[in-house]
Predict the 3D structure of the following.
Amino acid sequence: MKPLVFWKKKKPPIDYQKFVNELFNQIYVMVHESSKIIAERNPDNPEIRSKMEYWIFYSIIACASSSLYANSLQIEDRLEEALFYLKQRVDHWDNQGSEGMDNIAEYVHSITSRTVPDFNVYVEAVAAWLYINVRDETVIDIEKTRPYMTMANMASSYNSWLDEYVFR
């Protein structure tokens, strides 16, 4: 009788390009569909309709960046390769995409690094970043932030996307 041998199968290498393309396609569709709804439901914020191109650009950047906000600190070293492909994909869509991703990362870090890690602070920072960039204003009018919070919450749904779907 042969002894039972147990060994761990080696996982195949991760195809980051495949996952990044899948992620980007999901984000692209979600942002376009939800942007129309948000614009309709917020008639008191006409700049969303008038600046729809900016709204969509910055919303896609926010969602893509949120996917890199990982729950698991163990995957941080693997995020660099995923980030490379994600920036490459975003730049393919818009040549200023990776610059936008760097900008949101800096902005969000400047806010979240001052507090104890809190996901609500992260969402508020994303909403503020959207507001500042879409409206091209530096002073935030709290009365007009609802659509930006809505989109930031949608962006946060991509939180740890890579952690859940790629690195599991």
About this structure: Residues 16-41 form the longest helix (26 residues). The chain has a mean pLDDT of 83. The chain has eight helices and no strands.
